Amino acid sequence: MRIEKIDLINQVYETLKHNIINGTLAAETPLRQEELSESLGVSRQPISHALVLLEREGLVTELGRKGKMVTPVRAQHLSDLYQVRAELDGLAASLCAQNRTPGLEETLERVLEQGRRAISENSLELLLLADIEFHRALYTHSGNPEIGRIADSSWNHLVRAMHQVLNDASIHQAVWSDHQQIAEAILSGNSEQARELARSHANSSAELTAKRLTIP
């Protein structure tokens, strides 16, 4: 019974998190347990536990007696995250170029092809998955596991913004071209160029997000 209960909480948590990240539950949407319980077909208990987990991750905000709501997407928060990610991604790309671990080239080629396919199919969801996998490949092959652990904490918030920014298909090719250039620098062993390209990509993403999102 306990395993089933924990599994149900995880299912509710994953469902709510997915809906927050992809915008189905928009920023500042009130999260009323009665309504969520009815829409998901579960009791209020797993809803309550799931909301606590989401609040810890910064995706849900407590409003006191008013209950909870989906956390707003804030410009300064995203700017701060991208500033950190620029340094992490630059370090990861540089280490990848220095180490060029077994399987790196095959992984990058596979992920780049996934992104190209997503663009040709005009699939935002597939492009987002390829984008995340590209960066995680750099963290994995950097040889420093702490980079990935630190970066993982920012993905939920960045992907929320990316869902809105990348709705404009006209920028998909430019975004993926950045990834291609980073990969080429890594595979050629040019660690400094890889670092600068990765940092520039993160900074460009921050600027694009600030321009395209109308957020407080």
Give an account of the 3D structure.
The chain has two domains: 2-70, Arc Repressor Mutant, subunit A (Orthogonal Bundle); 75-212, Four Helix Bundle (Hemerythrin (Met), subunit A). 74% of the residues lie in helices and 4% in strands. It contains nine helices and three strands. It has helices at residues 2-21, 33-40, 44-56, 75-99, 104-120, 124-141, 145-165, 172-187, 191-212; strands spanning 30-31, 60-62, 68-70. A three-stranded antiparallel sheet has the order 1-3-2. Helix 4 packs antiparallel against helix 9. The model has no long low-confidence stretch (mean pLDDT 92).
Descriptors for this entry?
mainly alpha, 216 residues, Four Helix Bundle (Hemerythrin (Met), subunit A), 2 domains, 3 strands
Write the layout of secondary structure elements.
Elements: H1 2-21, E1 30-31, H2 33-40, H3 44-56, E2 60-62, E3 68-70, H4 75-99, H5 104-120, H6 124-141, H7 145-165, H8 172-187, H9 191-212
CATH class of the largest domain: Mainly Alpha
- What global shape is seen? elongated
List the secondary-structure elements in sequence, H or E: HEHHEEHHHHHH
Number of helices: 9
Largest sheet: 3 strands, antiparallel
The number of E-state strands comes to 3
Strand line-up across the major sheet: 1-3-2
**Low-confidence sequence ranges:** none
Average residue-wise pLDDT = 92
Which structural class matches the secondary elements?
mainly alpha
Distance between the termini: 45 Å
Brief summary of the model shown:
This protein has 216 residues and is mostly helical.
